[in-house]
Amino acid sequence: MTDLGHVKTLEELEALASSCTGCVLSESRTTVVFASGTQQARVMVVGEGPGQQEDEQGVPFVGRSGQLLMSLLSEAGIERDDVYIANVVKCRPPRNRDPRQDEIDACKPYLRRQIELVDPRVVVTLGNFSSKLLMPTTLGITRIRGQAYEWWGRHLVPTFHPAAALRGGESVTNDIRSDVALVRSLLDGRLASSTEDAAVGRDGGVENPEDEQLDLFGATPL
Ligand code: SF4
Question: pTM of the predicted model, to two decimals?
Answer without folding.
Answer: 0.87
